[in-house]
Amino acid sequence: MSAVADAEAGPVTAEEWAAHRRRTTQALPEPLAGKALPEILLPYQAELLAATSAHALVVTDKSRRIGATWGVGADAVLTAGAQKSAGGMDVLYLGYNLDMAREFIDTCAMWAKAFAPACSAVEEFLFVEQDANGAERAIKAFRITFASGFEIAALSSKPRSLRGRQGYVILDEFAFHDDAEELLKAAMALLIWGGKVLVISTHNGVDNPFNQLIQEIREGRRPGKVVRCTFDDALDQGLYQRICMVTGRDWSPEAEAKWRDEIRAFYGEDAAEELDCIPSQGSGVYLTGALIEACMTPRAPVLRLACPKGFELLGDAERESVVADWLAENVDPWLKLLTQDLRHYYGFDFGRSGDLSVFWPIEEGADLVLRAPFILELRNVPFRQQEQILFRIVDRLPRFSGGKHDGRGNGQFLAEYAQQRYGAMLIEAVMLSQPWYLEHVPRLKARLEDRTMAFSRDADVKSDLRQFRMIRGVPMIPQTAETKGADGGQRHGDAGVAAVLAVAAAEDDTVAYEYTPARVSSADRFWQAPRGDLGPESWQTKRGLW
């Protein structure tokens, strides 16, 4: 702290702290200071720089957070710092937001201080661009100028930013730019007069322009060089050892293996795309994690029943008794909290010995928000007990107005029983198909985007919803989308299918006639919260669950 301000001089101002942090971010990590460039760069970083020196167009598909852009900062400094006769030229960096631009410029400042001290400090300037109508506007940008006369400039992520410019273009996280195809076209124009283009990104789906560019180069339809570096490639070439060196940790093979497992666990089912350079099917994940989490609430639990192997062989009376007791203890308290004058719906995705059965009830509020008071997951539950559970719950849904079942395979029997009990006007057995998904999954997405649904905050539920992919233009769950739940059991996007069925049931035009659900509690009992860890005493109101 003494480097920032003397204690007697008073507290550190915001400006002083910002200047201090800027100096520290523009300096090589202490263990690397004074070393030559070949000693500093890890092999995969050096490979990328070698490719940019030999090819006009280089594309690198990479893992997250392996320091590829950090190494490219050295390439930018060496290029802008060189005389024109030695291949020097302007370097134009485009990330998809201003923070990326600032970070890259700081990285370049670090390299410049180490290898090209005859350069300016980082400057902020206003870059003037024209919109599609010809109107001009000034946008904040950053640059470093060199004695060679060239500069490194971090510009706006717009194709027009490259108009009239010449040099070495770096498109960072290209797969996530808003107008990627037009941006690539604008960058390619700089090759005509001897410029260079480097495209860096993690993947964002097989149909993304980034993956299409890679395939064109690999198939020989476009000249260029592809440099690929997965997370494991980076580890093999010293990434974790470098992290330990910089952070002061002790390195060991065991520590590296443990760290690797932790990182992969953090990414979960996204590891293939985020770490292993394997683009997801379709146009990437259809429902993003942020979109899903914005509609999650801790107020609604996920209730889980898993029956042991051999449970289905017990006598009818014993099975019914065990399940009835479980329902009374775990489900009935939540049913008692349902608002009696609101409509209720459900979706049911069926599974028996492999995948889960998921029952997703919905309460449609006066504000038209579709709220799941709870979600019920059943693993290895016998057919008869799934019928028992379904009837026990649906009989107690106030103003029950419709349900939709997965009607394929074994699920057809339960859908048929439900139709016999509640009527075909209220219950539909859905034969899930591409046309059905194409009609209904976008409606689920629209609900998430509009925040007009709410459901349990649960990692497995989120994972299931993230299994939707665009397959030949249809948002659906691939047959190969199998994951492991927190309980170690198999999942296949089951909660995602139940959610789509539930929303479809709620948005159906069906109107209930001649059906009045039984009320199982008095008004006074209704507002008594269940006891135990899941008790919602802290959020219960007489307006319903929210």
From TrEMBL:
Q: What InterPro entries does its record include? A: P-loop_NTPase (IPR027417), Phage_Mu_Gp28 (IPR012036)
Q: What domain of life?
A: Bacteria
- In Pfam terms, one family for this protein is Terminase_6N
Q: What is this protein called?
A: Mu-like prophage FluMu protein gp28
